[in-house]
Automatic annotation (TrEMBL):
Residues 8-89 form the GST N-terminal domain. Gene3D superfamilies: 1.20.1050.10, Glutaredoxin. Signal peptide: none annotated. This is GST N-terminal domain-containing protein. Pfam families: GST_C_3, GST_N_2. It comes from Sneathiella chungangensis. PROSITE patterns: GST_NTER.
């Protein structure tokens, strides 16, 4: 979101087709004013002292809050934004019966399929032995298919993950499926996941940002 007016409330440290997509979707859903700041990871900008001062892990996404603090970790950012903007109803309230389930699946998404996706896209981060990179990619692909099947089995709502309706878990899951090139391979056994993906894909917030994430 470009902004010529007053300073935006949030700054999202961002790169296309990265975990910043879910934060961008959350910011759009809550209608926050924000700017994206590109971190050029292909050229190592995430490893510079400047960026590491903001986010010591050297990873994207990170979010600059109005008080000047920067936080990293996609799940923490999603929770922070959801709690600061409760009227968007993206995260269940602390006393809601669905809250523990929401936390459980949000954390699963951030720690399991997201990390498997890193192995799928960047086997070189796991070993310098290039002869085994293909095996690592195949292993990641089959684990991703199983993880998506687990998620499909856990969907209790329609079209969204929870019976209580749309939430940030839908946005996170949409992002991960979006990153997976062989969607038909997952959708053939995961009808609920297909319905969720298509429902999130049609949301105005998604249509506003998705062209920022095309493969060039
Ligand atoms: N646990 C982190 C993972 C973030 C992550 O792995 N981001 C990738 C981009 S999608 C990254 O910055 N990779 C560069 C690196 O790890 O050096 C989160 O959930 O935000």
């Amino acid at each position: 979101m470009e902004n010529d007016g007053p300073r935006p409330t949030y700054t999202l440290f961002w790169e296309a087709l990265s975990g910043a997509m879910v934060v961008e979707l959350v910011l759009e859903e809550i209608g926050a004013s924000y700017e994206r700041r590109l971190i050029d990871m292909a050229n190592g900008e995430h490893l510079t002292d400047n960026y590491r001062t903001l986010n010591p892990t050297g990873q994207v996404p990170a979010l600059l809050l109005p008080n000047g603090d920067v936080i990293g970790e996609s799940a923490a950012i999603v929770l922070t934004l959801g709690e600061r903007h409760p009227s968007a109803s993206l995260i269940p309230s602390a006393t809601s019966a669905i809250r523990p389930h929401f936390l459980r699946w949000l954390i699963y998404l951030a720690t399991s399929p997201y990390m498997t996706m890193v192995q799928f896209n960047h086997p070189e981060r796991f070993t310098s032995i290039s002869a085994v990179h293909g095996d690592l990619v195949e292993n990641a692909k089959s684990r991703l298919v199983s993880q998506f099947e687990i998620l499909d089995g856990a969907i209790s709502g329609s079209p969204y993950f929870f019976q209580t309706g749309f939430s940030a878990v839908d946005l996170y899951l949409f992002m991960l499926v979006n990153f997976f090139p062989a969607k038909s391979e997952i959708f053939q056994n995961c009808n609920k996941l297909r319905g969720l993906y298509e429902a999130v894909e049609c949301r105005p917030s998604t249509t506003r940002i998705i062209s920022n994430h095309v493969v060039t």
